[in-house]
Specification:
The complex is a heterodimer of chains A (114) and B (115). With 114 residues, chain A is mostly beta strands. In chain A, 0% of the residues lie in helices and 49% in strands. In chain B, strand 9 and strand 10 form a beta hairpin. At the A-B interface, strand 4, strand 5, strand 9 and strand 10 of A face strand 5, strand 9 and strand 10 of B.
Chain lengths: 114, 115
């Protein structure tokens, strides 16, 4: 069984540019989470999808971040325009429904904004 | 609100020595508790979890953790460190009620194993 995959593994962009991160959860997992780790700090929750619906987006830092989950399968996280403080590692995780506790994490996307 | 404190951002142990990584949590509701490990260039892997069953939880690779409600702790231990245990370890908590199971993480502890 394939695990959670994320693309790209690394992204280096200039301040003001747009970047889109993609996450493919484990097949059949209805729950999809995005987290972010800024350098030197803890991993922080961004948002939670149940199928294609946003269950909880309380962790999204501001309106420059837009997350979507088309058809309840893969998800994208777009940052537009990117700022220096957006640099960090973005993790995606998935879990089975309905009240799955264990989340399976992807390898993360390292985003560097110059 | 929930929070997690991991004491020590870096811990070094000799190969064969006891590994003890400390985690204290704060939660307004009964929590679920987790330890995750991240090896270089990999994602987070679940080591073990506490979900209100037995307070002593055994995980993969010989790790275990004990939930102590009175101390609000969930320390991770392994009797004998192996070189392959060198990694970063994260303690996390989530609420035990229905709804979003978002994880709240500690800052992580990097474990070095000295030969």
């Amino acid at each position: 069984e394939a695990g959670v995959t994320q693309f790209p593994s690394h992204s280096v962009i200039e301040k003001g540019q747009t970047v889109t991160l993609r996450c493919d959860p484990i097949s059949g997992h209805d729950n999809l989470y995005w987290y972010r780790r800024v350098m030197g700090k803890e991993i922080k929750f961004l948002l939670h999808f149940v199928k294609e619906s946003k269950q909880d987006e309380s962790g999204m830092p501001n309106n420059r971040f837009l997350a979507e989950r088309t058809g309840g399968t893969y998800s994208t996280l777009k940052v537009q325009p990117a700022e220096l403080e957006d640099s960090g590692v973005y993790f995606c995780a998935s879990s089975q429904a309905p009240e799955a506790i264990e989340q399976f994490f992807g390898p993360g996307t390292r985003l560097t904004v110059l | 609100a929930q929070s997690v404190t991991q004491l020590g951002s870096h811990v070094s142990v000799s190969e064969g020595a006891l590994v003890l990584l400390r985690c204290n949590y704060s939660s307004s509701v009964p929590p679920y508790l987790f330890w995750y490990v991240q090896y270089p260039n990999q994602g987070l892997q679940l080591l073990l979890k506490y979900t209100s069953a037995a307070t002593l939880v055994k995980g993969i690779n010989g790790f275990e953790a004990e939930f102590k409600k009175s101390e609000t702790s969930f320390h991770l231990t392994k009797p004998s460190a192996h070189m392959s245990d060198a990694a970063e370890y994260f303690c996390a908590v989530s609420p035990s009620g229905a709804g979003s199971y978002q994880l709240t993480f500690g800052k992580g502890t990097k474990l070095s194993v000295i030969p």
